[in-house]
Design goal:
mainly beta; outer membrane lipoprotein receptor (LolB), chain A; Phosphorylase Kinase, domain 1; 2 domains; 13-stranded mixed beta sheet; seven-stranded antiparallel beta sheet; 4 helices; 24 strands; about 45% strand; globular; Sugar dehydratase
Length: about 375
């Protein structure tokens, strides 16, 4: 739930070239970090101590748990809200300003402004996302699903999250001036992380979300420090800002459907509960690298997200095999035939290793 993206290129090993790091960042829209397009994200290590629970938790029946998950997801999409988000990983803290509006016809409009560091901004109208890099006067345009970014919760509606997680209720706590219901989402195995979530009792909007490691240490947290819910719509300002980008240098990221099996690749989900969401082919290029294609296969268990990237070996993009960690995000790189395989996800290291080991290649026409 990191999301499904606050991760900069600095959170990805420098042995991975800039172009594939951009692709990895586009995946990391997971879980707790899902509000931000990955080009905006930040780095940091360490853990926080989880708060003491106010009371003994009550395990929710499946039907009640499903209703709460649906309510939280609906609120993220349908409510009008304006607030300040704080992302924390270890000692690193970054803030952003979010405006979200819905017209009641399944149309969403969103503006996200980074308040720390270089000036970055995201404008979203439904699935079309514009990432503004102000100092370069560049806008990056791509299609992204908005349902997997905070304060949304579920990365996909495929499958049932409650097959992999148990949900408990801890009562109420006050967060950002809102009375919230507090829940735990506990995995039924060691292949995924646990989560704590705080939902506004009146609207259901997600106010805080934490990704937990061993001994309930907080690996990552994103939360509203201030939020107004039910505000008048400001969608016209967002539409106007998008239309005002005509003078900016535009960089389009296009995704084409792909079928890796036809090319001899077998990319399966070796961990129970993870389902393949999509396979795409994405051409990439930067000022320092020639254009090339990366294949991406996206998996999710509903909360946790994971991507497998496949790129051809090239002397200009030297790589090293191995694994790296950044908070809850783990990255595994290995070579298969004349390709580099990069697996990245907000899941334990063992899960990333299993997915990397499950990728195999047999050239077409060979037995």
């Amino acid at each position: 739930m990191a999301a499904h993206s606050l991760h900069t290129a600095r959170s990805i090993p420098r042995s991975i070239p800039q172009s594939i790091r951009h692709a990895v960042r586009s995946h990391q829209v997971a879980a707790v970090c899902r509000t931000l397009v990955l080009v905006l994200c930040v780095s940091g290590f360490g853990t926080l101590h989880a708060q003491e629970r106010p009371q003994e938790p009550t395990r929710l029946e499946r039907g009640e748990a499903a209703k709460w998950l649906a309510r939280i997801q609906k609120a993220a999409k349908r409510e009008n809200y304006v607030g300040t988000l704080t992302f924390q990983r270890g000692s690193t803290i970054h803030s952003s300003r979010i405006q979200h509006f819905s017209d009641g016809l399944n149309n969403e409009y969103e503006r996200l402004e980074m308040l720390d560091g270089k000036q970055r901004e995201v404008l979203r109208q439904n699935s079309q996302v514009h990432t503004l890099i102000h100092e370069a006067h560049v806008v990056v345009v791509e299609q992204q699903e908005g349902k997997d970014r905070f304060p949304a919760l579920l990365a996909t509606t495929k499958g049932d999250v409650l097959e992999q997680y148990d949900m408990r209720h801890f009562g109420r706590e006050r967060v950002a001036g809102k009375e919230c219901e507090v829940f735990a989402l506990d995995p039924r195995d060691s292949q995924r992380f646990a989560y704590r979530i705080w939902a506004d009792k009146d609207s259901g909007l997600l106010i805080r979300a934490q990704t937990l490691g061993d001994a309930e240490t907080v690996l990552e947290q994103i939360a509203f420090s201030q939020v107004d819910i039910g505000v008048p719509s400001g969608k016209q300002r967002i539409i106007g800002a998008i239309k005002g980008l005509s003078g900016w240098r535009k960089y389009d990221i296009h995704y084409q459907p792909a079928n890796l099996a036809d090319q001899g690749w077998q990319v399966s989900a070796p961990v129970r509960g993870f389902q393949k969401i999509r396979e795409v082919r994405r051409p990439l290029n930067t000022d320092n690298e020639k254009a090339f294609e990366v294949h991406q296969v996206v998996f999710s268990d509903g909360l946790a997200g994971l991507s497998v990237f496949i790129e051809p070996v090239d002397q200009q993009r030297m790589r090293k095999e191995g694994i790296a960690a950044q908070g809850p995000t783990h990255i595994q790189v290995r070579r298969v035939a004349d390709h580099w395989i990069t697996v990245v996800g907000e899941v334990p290291a063992s899960t990333v290793r299993q997915f990397a080991a499950a990728v195999s290649y047999r050239p077409a026409g060979k037995p």
